[in-house]
């Protein structure tokens, strides 16, 4: 459950990429949570054709640190993390 002080940081469509990002955040002690959201049909191309994406949530005071840690990952991982969440409805969780 997201608190008022939490922010949606990024979206990840690939489970392997998600795992690497989450492991990095854990190692660097950056708090996070995840939510899964449906991707509208017209936005799926942006997210590798995925029907759902994992939205990484973090505390607003840790967002810059989280972005820096993700930015330090190798290009093949970093390029598959989407910070532009336009088109994803973040107020309604999928699967509920």
Low-confidence stretches: 92-96
Q: Largest beta sheet: what is the strand line-up?
A: 2-3-1-4
Strand content: 15-25%
The number of E-state strands comes to 4
Average pLDDT for all residues: 90
> Strand-and-helix sequence, N→C?
EHEEHHE
What is the number of helices?
A: 3
Instruction: Name the shape in a single word.
Output: globular
End-to-end separation: 13 Å
Protein described:
With 96 residues, this protein is α+β, with helices and mostly antiparallel strands. 27% of the residues lie in helices and 24% in strands. The protein contains three helices and four strands, in the order E-H-E-E-H-H-E. A four-stranded antiparallel sheet has the order 2-3-1-4, with helices on one face. Residues 92-96 have low confidence and may be disordered.
Secondary structure topology:
Blueprint: E1 6-12, H1 15-27, E2 33-38, E3 52-59, H2 63-71, H3 75-78, E4 81-82
């Amino acid at each position: 459950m997201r608190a008022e002080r939490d922010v949606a940081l990024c979206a990840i469509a690939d489970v392997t990429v998600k795992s690497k990002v989450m492991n990095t955040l854990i190692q660097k002690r950056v708090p996070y949570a995840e939510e899964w959201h449906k991707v509208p049909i017209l936005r799926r191309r942006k997210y590798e054709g995925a029907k759902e994406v994992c939205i990484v949530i973090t505390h607003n005071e840790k967002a810059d640190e989280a972005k820096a840690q993700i930015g330090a990952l190798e290009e093949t991982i970093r390029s598959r993390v989407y910070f532009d969440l336009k088109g994803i409805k973040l107020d309604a969780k999928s699967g509920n």
